[in-house]
Specification:
Layout lengths: L4 H14 L8 E7 L2 E10 L2 E9 L2 E8 L3 E3 L9 H22 L8
Antiparallel strand pairs: 1-2, 2-3, 3-4, 4-5
Amino acid sequence: MDFTQSELDTIQKHVDDRWREKDHGVHLGDIEVDGKEQPAAVWEHKHYTFIVIKLGAFNYRSLFYFLRDKRFDAGVDEYNDLDECVDSIMKAQADFSLSKSTNALKPKKDK
């Protein structure tokens, strides 16, 4: 139940559409989920590692790591649409990144 070439092309298209640099290759690996090895598509950008796990035919889970140790997801356990799965994790990461950036911009309270 590995990723098909069509699925990999779908993920790569989302990655290429998101970033101008075209050096974000999607790599394959395996990740243990509930004691069972599952195929995973992985790519990185700066301090982030993105992962899409294929749980079954048309069943996916996504997450990302910030600085390799802080794990986040999009709040949905499982997707049956790969486009939605990839879009959701990228949006979750963008929202997280924006919140990190804007936290530094908040005015400090006077003492």
